[in-house]
Amino acid sequence: MFVARLAEPADFEGWRRQARVLAQWEIPAGDIVWHVGDEPLDLFDGQAVDDLAHDQHVRFTVPREFPDLAEQVVCHRDPERFGLLYRLLLRLRQEPDLLKVVTDPDVHRLNAMARTVRRDLHKMTAFVRFREVRDAVGGTMFVAWFEPEHFIVRRVSAFFVNRFSSMRWAILTPLASLHWDGTTLQVAEGAARPDAPHEDAMEEYWRTYYANIFNPARLKIKAMKAEMPEKYWRNLPEAALIAPLIAGASQRMSAMVKAEPTHPSVRHARWQSRQEAPAYGTASAPSDWHQAATAARSCARCDLCRDATQTVFGSGPLDAPVMFVGEQPGDQEDLAGKPFVGPAGQAFDKAMAQVGFDRRRAYVTNAVKHFKFTVRGKRRIHESPNAGEIKACRFWLGLEREFVRPRLIVAMGATALMSILGKATTISSVRDLTTTLEDGTPMIATVHPSYLLRLPDEAQREKETARFVADLNRAKAMLPALLDPIR
Questions:
Q1: What does the DSSP assignment read for 426-440?
Q2: What is the pLDDT of residues 388-410, one digit of tens each?
Q3: Superfamily for 269-482?
Q4: Which of 271, 338, 276 is nearest to 307 (CA)?
Q5: Cα(271)–Cα(14) distance, rounded to whole angstroms?
Q6: What is the pTM of this model?
């Protein structure tokens, strides 16, 4: 008889180390007693596994999934778990594909035990509720009570350390207890339920939250109890509401049916009108600028219309000799419905004034007509449009060019350049050149004014601003030779 001693009930590393030695000697599973901690042996001590010679150079392989399954199964409360795992280890040396035989009694039992442990791990992460208490020196810490079915406390500890690393807490269970002081995790012996606090000020918040998210129309009692078994209810502050909420579900649902329907939000109504409006194409294109601007208000050519406040069409005289094309509306442009009125527009106006370029004689627009953004807190943060969105909006920019017929186009930024040229092109490759477009219109490229605002270095910002002003000066100098006397 051989005795394999393990430090604690879920000592996977200890089991693996000793199982390797035993497997080298091909000791049968029935000749091994797996002894945990200070548990007394039933009859007599056998030969310790550590006394067996172990050849470090002898190696054998097992399927990759077996160590993961074994690490889960050692957490099970079944006293025969270590013997089952060792028996499977010996069999896997002769039958490498054994784990694929799900009808095999040992494999079936192994998988069932692993599923049970995984479920217990999930329940602990879902149903632990901390309560605020004061420690011996008057500090604040949080204590929770949980009753796991299996020896999972050590295995689940990393989840709680990562999730609640900034606070001091303890989780008490009958099997083992976790204590985290903000830097170090300690695993102690199990505790009794009276050691855990019973209630704190947060209990009412939990109950209020649960009562407000409870939907009587979706109540499925059997499914609810399967996900949140009744044995956990006594540890959950919101569980006190379950019975009255279930009892009143039918009445609340009837009241919901009888209530008047709520009206959709203004944004939803605006989006719905865009969906119902025609998506203008070449066959039904507007015949003049005013029709185009009106049609663009209900544009649904891409998904940006769903979240934007409104379409921001170009503005300026329809006989303007120069057209400035930017990227897309910003937050303030989206609210105002006009291009270049935000911080980038102010930087643009300042540079135009420095050049002596009257903006009132220029047509200003964007390659994309809707504001694309991500929400961070209460702020809407600009997000660059993708190639598909730029392509969808080329239709509107094409109409603007057709109806305004500018003598010169100034593309500000890579998005504007991509929209005008129909392909991705870097600003640096064409900035000092004059590009002739397919319809014969000359185009020059420069940076977008928002680029100047993003530069963190003051010296660099002054240098790039001076270069932007020089680009505007070049555009202004080109106009006299381009103007048609007839216009």
A1: -HHHHTTS-EEPTTS
A2: 999 999 999 999 999 999 999 99
A3: Uracil-DNA glycosylase-like domain (3.40.470.10)
A4: 271
A5: 62
A6: 0.53
